[in-house]
């Protein structure tokens, strides 16, 4: 699985667009989907922290933390901007961070309160998607009428291991991009 840093090095413009949407209100803000013990989805607002080291989230003692500790699969979606319907989506696996030095650095960067019972998780990235609809939901000039611009990055290692593309209805295009994926295609 690719770390946020691996993904950002591979597709810096896409990573910057996703980071901007997740941090549009200052600190990171998004919706975290986890997998309940019965296999159903659970969604929670969270404050992701993006640093040069990776994509992290402090998770307090809660059902979402138990989900991540048990299963690890996640999806993270940006909060909608006020001026457009743009959206960012990430999916992969979360892993607890146990290195005290790294936890302390990320806690400082994310201004995490030390008196709270939280655990730090790093989120690997299997799928990254950015959808741009333009101001007020309008498509940017040069795009097809009514069609948003969608960029998708798929970790080639994850797609190979899982035997699936990771995005429903999307198949990786075997051209363009450093890993052979066309990250500039529009939605079908």
Short summary of the structure?
With 188 residues, this protein is an alpha+beta fold.
Give the SSE layout.
Elements (H helix, E strand, L loop, with lengths): L3 H7 L1 H11 L7 E6 L5 E6 L2 E3 L2 E7 L2 H8 L2 E6 L8 E10 L3 H11 L7 E6 L3 E6 L16 E6 L1 H7 L26
Antiparallel strand pairs: 1-2, 1-5, 3-4, 4-7, 5-6, 6-7, 6-8, 8-9
Helix pairs in contact: 1-2
Provide a descriptive summary of the structure in words.
It is a single chain. With 188 residues, the chain is an alpha+beta fold. It has five helices and nine strands, in the order H-H-E-E-E-E-H-E-E-H-E-E-E-H. A hairpin with a 5-residue loop joins strand 1 (30-35) and strand 2 (41-46). Helix 1 (4-10) packs across helix 2. Residues 163-188 have low confidence and may be disordered.
Salient structural properties:
nine-stranded antiparallel β-sheet; 188 residues
Percent range for β-strand residues: 25-35%
> How are helices and strands ordered from N to C?
HHEEEEHEEHEEEH
Rounded to the nearest angstrom, the radius of gyration is: 17 Å
Give the structural class. Answer: alpha+beta
Poorly predicted runs: 163-188
Rough outline: globular
End-to-end Cα distance, whole Å, is: 27 Å
Mean pLDDT score: 81
Q: How much helical structure, as a percent, in the residues?
A: 10-25%
Counting DSSP E segments of at least 2 residues, the number of strands comes to: 9
């Amino acid at each position: 699985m690719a770390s946020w840093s691996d993904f950002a090095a591979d597709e810096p413009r896409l990573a910057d667009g996703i980071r901007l949407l997740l941090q549009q209100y200052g600190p990171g803000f998004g919706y975290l989907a986890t997998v309940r013990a019965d296999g159903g989805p659970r969604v929670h607002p969270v404050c992701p922290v993006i640093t040069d080291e990776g994509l992290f989230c402090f998770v307090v003692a809660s059902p979402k933390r138990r989900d991540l500790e048990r299963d690890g699969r996640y999806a993270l979606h940006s909060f909608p901007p006020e001026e457009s319907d743009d959206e960012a989506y990430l999916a992969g696996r979360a892993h607890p961070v146990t290195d005290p030095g790294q936890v302390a650095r990320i806690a400082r960067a994310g201004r995490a309160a030390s008196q709270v019972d939280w655990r730090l998780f790093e989120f690997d990235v299997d799928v990254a998607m950015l959808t741009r609809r333009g101001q007020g939901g309008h498509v940017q000039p040069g795009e097809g009428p009514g069609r948003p611009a969608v960029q998708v990055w798929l970790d080639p290692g994850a797609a190979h291991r899982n035997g699936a593309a990771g995005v429903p209805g999307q198949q990786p295009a075997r051209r363009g991009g450093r890993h052979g994926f066309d990250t500039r295609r529009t939605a079908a």
